[in-house]
Amino acid sequence: MGLRRGYNLRESLTHVVQGLLMGAADIVPGVSGGTIAFIVGIYPRLITAISHGFSMLTSLFKGRLGEMRRHGASLEWGLVIPLAAGIGGALLIGAKVIPILLETWPHQTLGLFLGLVAGSVGVPWKRIERKNLVVLCMVVATCGAAFLLTGIPASGDALAPSSIRVFASAATAICAMILPGVSGAFLLKAMGMYEVTLHALNDGNIGYIALFAAGAITGLGLFSRFLNYLLERYADLTMAALVGLMIGALRALWPWQTPEHALRIPGEGEPFWTVVLLAAAGFAFIAIMARQANRMRHPETDGS
After folding, report:
1. d(CA 239, CA 233)
2. Do residues 173 and 188 make contact, with C-beta atoms less than 8 angstroms apart?
3. What is the SS3 assignment for 128?
């Protein structure tokens, strides 16, 4: 019994750390918390948990208490609660730290993020059981779509966005946040809602935060059901789409871009080798992390 309690505590702490990593990734334009969930091996469990959670809330609003209890019993609370705590903590910290890093060391910070995302591409690719022509076409198509999307110039941030705009932006961005390779923070940036959302979070604007959370919960619940269906029925094609999205989204993290998101080569006096070294460090970190996650999922492969 004591061993079991110790194991649960260790598992909960692990989920808190995973949540911290996901939250830190979600707040960076161009990086997805879904990528981290894939790397640490909790992605299918996360999508299932989100689906059950949204079903539980829907049943509550409809007054179907018995149905709500059934969904609640199916919800993996041991994953959701510590993960949410980690994500929330990372968002609060990241809202203050990430803008400073991007402003002070923009090239180096983006280089690190580029390596992190590039290193994670192989995670969903390895989960594709049948790599055929259809799968390759899906990779190419989604890669092209993500490449074009991340090249859209960001519009200016609204100082006082309408309630509908805040709700809709949150519902759209949260869907991207659970997809590896699609950055919800970048979509907020493209919709002109990134800086204003960070300021609301830093200033403790309860009204804005509550409205944003409502939109996020709605979008997350509806999209998670659809994504869960795709993972069950079309697993290989879904993984292929995610691979393409991750590769195409690397454009958003290229350290040298014009204000209109056109790619360019490093200019004179701009850092290069430090960017390359940080990108390599990010790639190596993800590779090690993915290897450790694989050992945790398949402990029988360890040893001799």
Report:
1. 12
2. yes
3. coil
Range of the domain at 218: 2-297
Closest by Cα among 240, 249, 241, 247 to 152:
249
For range 25-33, the mean pLDDT? 72
Q: Are 166 and 208 in contact (CB under 8 A)?
A: yes
Closest CA to 245 of 157, 303, 175, 198: 175
Q: Number of folded domains in the chain?
A: 1
State yes or no: pLDDT of 193 exceeds 80. Answer: yes
Residue 38 lies in a domain: yes
CB–CB of 40/106 below 8 Å?
no
The one-letter code for the residue type at 182 is V
Residues 198 and 94: their CA atoms lie apart, in Å, by: 9
- The two tokens of residue 80 are 């959701």
pTM of the model: 0.68
Residue 299 pLDDT exceeds 70 = no
